[in-house]
Amino acid sequence: MVEWKIETEPVDYVRAVADMERRVEAIRNGEAEELIRLLEHPPLYTAGTSAKEEDLLDPRFPVYPTGRGGEYTYHGPGQRVAYVMLDLRKRGPDVRAYVCSLEDWIIRSLAHFDVKGERRAGRIGIWVDLSRHGGLKGQEAKIAAIGIRIRRWVTYHGVAININPDLSHFGGIVPCGISEYGVTSLHALGIPCTLDEFDAVLKKEWRDNTAAIDCPAASACPVEE
Predict the structure, then answer these.
(1) How far apart are CA 216 and CA 212, in angstroms?
(2) Which entry of 100, 176, 193, 221 is annotated as an active-site residue?
(3) Does the active-site annotation cover 193?
(4) Are 43 and 63 in contact (CB under 8 A)?
(5) The pLDDT value given to residue 179
């Protein structure tokens, strides 16, 4: 059974990573249940294992190197971060299927708010066609980032979904190394969702069978093993 933990105050990034490291080891050793931890961070940037120095445009917030796959991303208030710690030894040791299950989880959750989240070939994360929300034809933006790490088949790090963050804070980086497209949030799309409301949907839409996924060929794989 997966344990759920929802934090009510922003959590320091270094402490959150240390907590994940300990929990991953405990799961690996059979000493703790799997865990999904939902939280916010104070404003900060993280640099994944593929981050390029030139993509850090304005380090206005602390920058933390991190072991997850992917490039630069922003975390801050109004963004729901989900750290997902699962044992793939018993769920199916298929990394791509696991990443696809995270994508599907986000897509199903966004659909509750009449937002169509989509994958894009060669682009990590979940994207929104802005023309469906008053934007111009062809405009799209990223609403959720994905970056994971797997240690001896136990997952950690996870996803970050923009509910109502200050989108100007993304201006200090090239998010995930992609400069051609912007970022958006539920509030920017005109949907006044709260973190509590989105958390309830995330719990409802969670599927335990993460390996039973028909993974699209377009799906990218932001993972560091």
Answers:
(1) 13
(2) 176
(3) no
(4) no
(5) 76
* pTM value > 0.85: yes
User: Between the CA atoms of 108, 111, 115 and 117, what dihedral angle is there, to the nearest 10 degrees?
Assistant: 20
Residue 134: how many CA atoms within 13 Å on its side-chain side?
A: 5
Token code pair at residue 149: 């790490």
Query: Could you tell me which residues come within 8 angstroms of residue 6 by beta carbon, excluding any fewer than 6 positions away?
Result: 37, 38, 39, 199
Here the tokens at position 104 are: 């599907």
The answer to whether 117 and 111 have CB atoms below 8 angstroms apart is: yes
Each residue of 156-192: pLDDT tens digit?
Answer: 999 999 999 999 999 999 987 777 789 999 999 999 9
pLDDT tens for 46-74 read 999 889 999 999 999 999 999 888 899 99
For residue 225, the model assigns a pLDDT of 43
* % helix, strand, coil for the chain, step of 5: 30, 30, 40
